[in-house]
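User: Can you help me understand a structure? I only have the sequence.
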Amino acid sequence: MTGVAPFVSFVRALAKDWKEGRFDGSHQLYLLNGASRPWEFGYKEELIRFDAELPWFKYVPTVSRPWIMQIGRAKSGAADDVLRKYADHWDSTPRIQRRTCADIPT
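Assistant: Let's start by predicting it. Here is the structure, written out as tokens:
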């Protein structure tokens, strides 16, 4: 299990390319980052900064156990429930691919 780390590396590389003019921003990236507890987000601050700086990247952290402590910017609820909220908006783009970085029960 690698979690979100490969996606973070991908966003870092694209951000660098975008700032240097090698990526035109024509692809939209969306990251719904789910965790059970707020302190489980390993890259939250960096991803929030990318969300603010990069017009082609959107970051939505979500916590499934919000009662544990205040969650700040994160949404609350299971990641699949929060995904349903955002999927209609995200599906308005011409092409979209979804990737998960977690075990999905079958």
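Now, to help you interpret it: Helices lie at 5-19, 44-53, 79-90. The CA atoms of residues 2 and 101 lie 7 Å apart. Let me know which part you'd like to focus on.
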